[in-house]
Each structure stands twice: as structure tokens, then as C-alpha cells.
Amino acid sequence: MTNFLSVERALRTAAPHALLDVVRSVLAAHYGAHAVDLLMADYSQSVLQPVTALPHTAVAVSTRSSVQGRAFGSQEPQQEISAADDLIALHLPVTVRGDRLGVLTVRLTPSHCTAVAVRDLVDIAGLLGHEILVAERDTDVYLQARRVNRLTLAAEMQWQLLPARACARTEYSIGAQLEPAYAIRGDNFDWASTAENLTLTITNGMGEGIEASLLTNLAVNALRNARRAGIGIADQAALADQALYAEHGGSAHVSTLLLSFDLATGHVQVVDAGSPQLWRQRDKSVERVPFEAQLPLGMFDQTEYVLQEFRVLPGDRLIFVSDGVYAASSPAGEAYEKQALSRAITAAGLLAAADVPGAVLRELAAYRDADAEDDALVVCLDWHGRTSPT
Asked: Any idea what the Cα angle at residue 100 is, between residues 94 and 105, rounded to 5°?
């Protein structure tokens, strides 16, 4: 424990850009580490890219065909023995409340790779994740390491607007992904929770490029402003609608699906203001959950929004998709939602919520016309329910 506390103290006092240098130094001093590397998941979560000085020259590794990728996907430590020097490479997931940031690789001699050391290093990897999120307010080092390619300006704006790509609590687990990751435009997701409630929004701003990104930014911040005032989702939608109409006079609108989950009961309030769809997997059945569609935000002045309701049960999986997913066509002209979307959801049934969006989007990429350019958004929410009072 003394070693762990020394590492914790060093990380908390490290300069934001120097976290990796500091963790290398303290792990060498307290755990006998021969080498330490930090790999960050890129925006598409297809590769893990080492944190190095610009320009990045270290080789990235796949999240799906490498030992580091197994640690990232399974969220369990993975060991790899080097035949050249007999060192053990310990690959540790760097994750913060369900949000998978990357992998910390620590190379140790077998004598240093004890059960106690492994437990400490797992905790240190989690602590490093927290420090990275704090450090990103003051440095671009870790954000730059997440980029295999340059983002478009519209994508830069959208990624900065998003919450984490995954989160987990006792009552639920969420995973989300946007594609094309480096050139997204108007699709967006957002969530926030309290002790008793989860609010989830899926948005799709019309237009392309900067225009779509600016429109979505206005809508999401208007919804956040209303949510943080403590009002319900129907009034959140109404206030965001007014903000968009005041700015654009009805010439631009944002399709939005808003949901408010009661964490104790699974009771859900919904406002369907546009095109995003909800699909539910319950036991072995996959079906779309339809709602009465209302006007998109910003289309007309003073629109009133009406709540609808349903209930989720423990074990339910909810999949939210944008029109870039369900309306995508195969080369033969069949929409993805007809049969292929249900098959993709079923095929991903054993995956964790954080892995489902990527799996569905990979199936979509193989299905649709190669020339399709619309944004594609998938959000997965696994509902566990509350089994005992908090």
C-alpha cells in the first residue's frame, strides 16, 4: 500500500503533459518496472496508439487482434511473456467509470509480477485514467494520441461536445459510437444522471459540415441548459425548440429523441421529436419500439411537446440508432432496418454494452453502399435495474 500511495501522490502532483513520464519513473522505483507504455484508443476504437511526442511515429496496434486489444476489450489484465528477455508485459485497461480510454503496458521481471503488484497496477491504471481526463483540460497530448487521422473541423466540434463513449452504474451500462469518426457532422448523443434519474438524448442536426455541427451544438447546449435548470424533458424540448427557432426562424431543425429513466422503477418518459429510432432486445426477441413522432426542434415557433411512457425491465437492451444506420441501403436498395439491423443486434447479444455500437457499425459498413456518406450513430443501453436501496 505504501508503494501505491507513493504512485498516487506522484500522479496527482504531476504536470498534465508529464503523466506518462511520471508513471514510468514511479513504477520503476516502486514496482521494478523495466518499461511503461500508454496506448490510447482512437476515435473509431479500431486501434490503440502509443502516447509519444509529435509527430507520432510509434506503431499502433489493433483493438481486435492484439494482446493489448484483448485487455481493452475484456477489461481484464493480460500477460505476455517475452522470449527475448523473459520479461512479463502486463497489459492493463485504462478505464474510468466504464469509459474505455486505452491500455497501460508495464514490463516486469517474473519476481516483480506478484499477485499484490498486479492488483496495485490495475488500480494505478484506473487512477491514471482519472488523471488523464483531468489533464485534458490543460494539454492536448492525450487527445492527439487518439487520432490516427486529422479530424475535420466539424468532427472536432462534435467530439468536444460529447460526453464519454461509455459509462456504467449499478442500474445501467451505456456504450456509444459515431461513424465516420473523423468526419462526423450532425449526429450526437448526450447523457447525465442523478441519484434517481438518467437523462439520455440522441440528436441529428440537418445539413452538412460546419453548418450541421453548429446547429447540433446549439441544440445540445440548449437542452443541457434546460436540463440543468431542473425541468422535465418535455419542457427541455420546448425551450431548445424556442432557442433554435429564434436563431434560424424555422429554416433549420434538429431531430431529437429524449428519454428520462427512473432508476428505481425502470419507468421511462419519452419525447420523440424526429428521426432517431429505439430498438429493444428482450430475451431473444428484437423489435423496434415506436413512439408518436412530434415535430423536430426548431421547425416551428412555440411547439408543445407531449410525454410518452414505457418501462424497461432488468435484462433489457435498448439500441438507439440514427437515420444514417436504419435508413442505410444495401447495393440492392434494401434499408438496413428491414432485417439486417435486427440480425446485427442479435449477433451482438453476448457483447458488453460498450462493444455493441462498434459491432453494429461494422455490420453496417459491410452491408451498405460503399459510397454512403451519412453519419451513423449507435447507442446501446443495458438495463440492470436496482436490486437494493442506494
From this structure: 30
Q: What are 201's strand-pairing partners?
A: 190, 258
The mean pLDDT value of the chain amounts to 93
Instruction: Using only the alpha carbons of the chain, give its radius of gyration.
Output: 22
Written as one string, the DSSP assignment of 22-86 is HHHHHHHHHH--SEEEEEEE-TTSSEEEE--SSSP-SPPEESSSSHHHHHHHH-S-EEEE-TTT-
Please return the burial class of 129, using the count of CB atoms within 10 Å of its CB with bins 0-12, 13-18 and 19+: buried
Q: Which of 9-23, 140-154, 368-382 has the least mean pLDDT? A: 368-382
- Check residue 383 and give its pLDDT: 98
Instruction: Encode 272-311: b = buried (16+ Cβ within 10 Å), e = exposed.
Output: bbbbbbbbbbeeeebeeeebeebbbbbbeeebebeebeee
Each residue's pLDDT tens digit, 333-353: 888 998 999 999 999 999 999
Q: Which of 98, 131, 108 is nearest to 7 (CA)?
A: 131
Assigned C-alpha cell, 157: 466540434
Instruction: State pTM to two decimals.
Output: 0.93
462526423: which residue's cell?
Answer: 184
Contacts of residue 131, defined as CB under 8 A and 6 or more positions apart, other chains included, come to 11, 12, 14, 19
